[in-house]
Amino acid sequence: MLNVTSLSKAYRKKVVLEQISFSVQPGEIIGLVGENGAGKSTLLNILATLQRPTNGSIYLQEKSYKDEKQSIRKAIGYVPQDIAIWEEFTVEENMIFFEKLAWKKRGNEALRQLCLDMSLDKWKEPVKTLSGGMKRKLNLAISLIHDPTLLLLDEPTVGIDLKSRKEIGAYLQELASAHEKMILYTSHDMDEIIDLCDRIICIGDDPFYEEILINSGKAILSF
Ligand SMILES: Nc1ncnc2c1ncn2[C@@H]1O[C@H](COP(=O)(O)OP(=O)(O)OP(=O)(O)O)[C@@H](O)[C@H]1O
């Protein structure tokens, strides 16, 4: 379980997140929505241990972010908005490179299967020859190598075609429900969020989002 309590973040005097509290159960996919600059990436960066909150506490499976950062990092998979892969390497070489850095070891077949699960079949192709959407699929596959418990996905499907998006969504739902993963997911595509997520967190108290989501039948938390 992930527990976030009274989390706040300010950049100098600019308050971005204020008194955010929520929890995520194993098996849940949580959507994070809000206008540009609302603080979604900031929240994911904090949950990924890349930034510190100004106030508040976070626990992952009863481990405190403050005291057990190294061990918590092993349980986190993070896909940032910016693609972070080696352009000169092939897909295979990227997967092998990141597997060597990972906490958990996987054989070549398992690495290849992860790419296929993301609808990416360009195993021997150099990354620089792939489309933007294909690079995002590779980024997603890399984030799953170490079998993380908490998956933080910051607009992971931007530029990915609709068919692949549906396939990836189905894969993430299976990952959450069958393997008890916790997934936090940001997207500006409300249909995707409503389709994929069990609950939705709106950041930035803009009523626009609540109005769109009100008929979705999903539980909504607003901050
Ligand atoms: N390192 C930083 N230093 C100062 N201000 C920052 C920093 N990072 C983010 N901000 C500010 O914090 C606010 C929240 O940014 P953030 O990237 O978290 O928003 P977001 O909801 O992810 O936006 P988007 O939908 O555009 O991705 C913005 O006003 C941004 O300018």
UniProtKB/TrEMBL annotation:
Keyword Cell division (UniProt): no
UniProt cross-references to SMART domains, sorted A to Z: AAA
Domain ABC transporter: 2-223
Classification via Pfam families: ABC_tran
Molecular-function GO term, any one: ATP hydrolysis activity
Statement: the UniProt record of this protein carries the keyword Thylakoid: no
Record keywords: ATP-binding, Nucleotide-binding, Transport
InterPro entries: AAA+_ATPase (IPR003593), ABC_transporter-like_ATP-bd (IPR003439), ABC_transporter-like_CS (IPR017871), ABC_transporter_ATP-binding (IPR050763), P-loop_NTPase (IPR027417)
Family: Belongs to the ABC transporter superfamily.
Protein name: ABC transporter ATP-binding protein
